Every structure is written in C-alpha cells, then in structure tokens.
Amino acid sequence: MDNDASENYQFSSRTPSDVEFGESQCNSDRFDDDGRAKRTGTVWTASAHIITAVIGSGVLSLAWAVGQLGWIAGPGVMILFSFVTYYTSALLSDCYRSCDPCTGKRNYTYMDAVQANLSGVKVKMCGFLQYINLIGTAIGYTIAATASMVAIKRSNCFHVNGKDDPCQISGNLYMIIFGIVQIIFSQFPNFDKIAGLSIIAAIMSFTYSTIGLALGIVQVIANGGFKGSLTGISIGLVTPVHKVWLVFQALGSIAFAYSYSMILIEIQDTIKAPPPSEAKVMKRATSISIAVTTVFYLFCGCMGYGGFGDLAPGNLLTGFGFYNPFWLLDIANAAIVIHLVGAYQVYCQPLYAFIENWAKQTWPNCKFITNEILVPMSLSKSYNININLFRLTWRSLFVVLATFISMLMPFFNDVVGLIGAIGFWPLTVYFPIEMYIVQKKVPKWSTRWIWLQLLSTLCLVISVAAAVGSVAGIVSDLKVYKPFKTT
Prior knowledge:
Elements: H1 3-10, H2 21-24, H3 43-54, H4 62-93, H5 110-117, H6 121-161, H7 172-185, H8 195-223, H9 240-257, H10 264-268, H11 278-308, H12 326-362, H13 367-370, E1 372-375, E2 385-388, H14 389-408, H15 412-440, H16 447-478
Antiparallel strand pairs: 1-2
C-alpha cells in the first residue's frame, strides 16, 4: 500500500472489516467497484441524515437569537445563512470524487477530500477543527437533551405540587442516563447502520419544532399581536456592551443551527453508486433539507420572538416557565431527547471511524483492536452482533468524557454559539471554497474567484464575532456557576 492509499485508508469512514477484497470482484451485489461494502443510500436517506443533523437543538435557540437581532436582522440573517450553507454544500459535494463526478476516485471523508485537493498543513488543520467541532456538538447535545429531561420532570412537578413549588432539579442524573444510552447506540459500527435511527430522529425533530411553533402562535394570539422590535432586545434591559455580545452570540447560535458541512462527505459516502452521480443526489438532498429547515426556522424563530418579545427564552421549550398544557410540553421534550440520541450518533460516527481506522493502521496485528467477537442475541443467527473490544472501550470512554464536560459547563446558549462559531467559517465556507477553486481550476482574480473570496471573508468576520460573543457569555456564566451543585 503506497503512502497516498495509506492516508485515504486511515481517514475512511468505513472500517476495514467492511472490506473483503477477495470477494469484491466476484460478488458485485455486495461490493462497490473499489472493494468496499455496497452503498444503499438514496436522496431520502441522505435527506434524513441532513435533517437529523440540521434541525437539532439549535432550533430551540432561534427565538432568542431573533430577539437579540430584531425583526429585520433576525429573519435576514437566517435566510443569509441558509443560502450560504446551500451554496457551499453544493461546492463541497462536487469534491466527493476527484476529476470525473461518476468514475473519479472517491473521497470517503471530509479529510480525504481536503487531502486530495489541498494537502499539507491544511489537512491537519481541517481534521483538528472538524473533530473539535464534533466533540463540541456531542457536548452541546448532551446539555440540550438533559435540559429537556429536566423540563419534563419540572413540568410534572408543577402539575402535581402547583406553581409555588420551586421544583429545583439537578440535571446530573439525567446527563448520566443520556450518556448510558449513547454508550449503547455508539456500538453501531458506521453510518450505514444508523439510517433507521436517523429517520426516527428526523421525525422527532419535526415533532418538537412543530410544537414549539404552535406554542409561539398560541402566545401571539393570547397577546393580541406580535411582540418585539425592529432592533431586538432594548438597551436598558441590557447595557450597550452586553447588547453587542448578545448580538454576536446570536450569530453563533444561528450558525450552529445550520451547521452540518463537517459530516456532508461522510453522508454522501452512503449514497449508492452512480448513475446518477453522488454529487447530483447530494445536491438534491441538500436543497430539500435546507428548504424545509429554513421554513421551520423562520416560523419557529419569528413566532417565538413574536410571542415572548424581549423575554424570549434561550431554549423555547424549557426556558420560559410555561408548563401548560404540561402533556404537550412533555411530548415535545421527549421528542427532543429521542432526536438528540440519533443526532449525537450522526455527528460522532466520523470521529469514531477516524480513531478506529487510525488505530488499525497503526497496530494492525493487535487483536484487541482488530478482532470481532460474535455475541448471540437469540437462537436465530440473524440477531447475532459483532462486538469489537477496542470500539466498545474507546467509544464508551468518549461518551463518558463528553458527559463529564457537559456537567462542568451546562450553558446551552453559550456552548451552542461557540460551537457554531468554531465550525461555520472553516468547515462550512473556507475549505469547500478552496477545494472547489482547486478542483475546477478557477483562475485567480477572475470574477468568480473574487466573489468566492469575498464570501469567505464575510463569513470569517461573522465567525470571529460569534466566537467572541460566546466566550464572553461563558466567562460571565462561570462567575456564578458551581459545578455539580447548581440546579
């Protein structure tokens, strides 16, 4: 195996156990032309993966984000982010194959695509940013799922004991429960095995987004009209400096709500072989998913702000103390938890695959890393599962670490804003643009090149501003927060 092949193998999203080269030439029903397990994904499974990733916990902070920006900038920024995300995702999907879109060499992961088109230090920078972002997303999803589980408990507490009961509840136990569930689901070996989980998660995302939208509409009707202002939260309720930090943080929250580019290539690698080309299928799935999510985002963000005005909560379903009808909010929060179980896996699978493939490449003769143990689940062989001890150990340790960090820093809006800021410019904008310029040989200083560079620069400014605002929020929260004690 030469060096280039070795690097591509290392970053592959499918484990070597999926590849049986001896059979690939004589059993085309099971293998693609490169010897890997045959892909079965379609535009609908890809759309389900994208919707699961995009319509995540970020939608819950959109009413708050619009509240910081106001009626003009709030919806405008959401529409801007949707166009930027779709455009750069289309550029990125063209980088899945080198040269020919149907027969060119496949890049199995985001890092493979960067390696093929940019190489050098940019590959390491991309890997670092991608996996830091995936780790941050796992932490953010743990915090969001815990907030929803606590909200269910508080809702039922208020229903039984009345609103005078403070119903103070620690989220630590619920974080541990969510972590245990993730340890179990983390044993799915790759993306192909979680398509069903993604479809269920996508349905759940629509469920709680619709309920959040309905609550906003009901509140607008109860108010007799829309609350809020053209410029967002008023100076007086917050200081001018705090207003600036909140606006920056809101940009990060909206960026997080649209963030999925760091796993786009991995999702595209599940789409079955051409024709049509994977890029065409992915662009169609992206257009469907971004259009659907943007409509939901606009309705949820605007109706939430219209219903609650400057008091719009950071988490629409847990933050405003509105616990009637309690059963409806329980359903919504339960849907959030179920969705985030699936979304957590969608985001973590590329990280899992990278570490496992690196370990197998580094220690190919280590049985602890390479051997699979058959575990019978029933008398029927169809229910047997393969357990890899290294996969079981390292994925479990990762979930434990992510859960522990979530307990130390359970600040939903600040963490969401920081994750969005870190990942938006480099992974959603910079790398797709730079790879597209190289692959399509866009002439330097041409009109198209200048437009792409202006877009990248604008998004860099937005990302820096969002990161500054989110860090300021975290620092402020840490001044009053007591780890493991605050309820």
